[in-house]
Amino acid sequence: MLVNEYAFEHLALAHERQLVRETEWVRVREERLAEERAAEPSPNRPGPSVAGWFGARWLGAVWSGAAGHRARS
User: Cα dihedral angle (65, 70, 71, 72), rounded to 10 degrees?
Assistant: First the structure.
């Protein structure tokens, strides 16, 4: 009977250690995924676009120049 109790405790401890390892692995994996998601740009919130800013300035200058030209003629 003592051997069975020892074997049961040994199996219980081994199972508990396995659960701890799996839980730690899942936690590390989730942290890595969160870091990867934070590093990549989100399509829902684009970063500042230098080309877009210059394009808007150029379009504004062309538009105001065309409006001024129409007003003079």
Answer: 90
| Cα separation, 8 vs 68, whole angstroms | 91
Question: What is the 3-class SS of the chain, one letter each residue?
Answer: CHHHHHHHHHHHHHHHHHHHHHHHHHHHHHHHHHHHHHHCCCCCCCCCCHHHHHHHHHHHHHHHHHHHHHHHC
- The encoded tokens of residue 30 equal 């989730």
Structure token digits, residue 14? 């081994």
Q: Give the residue, 67 or 32, on which the prediction is more confident.
A: 32
This model's pTM is above 0.85: no
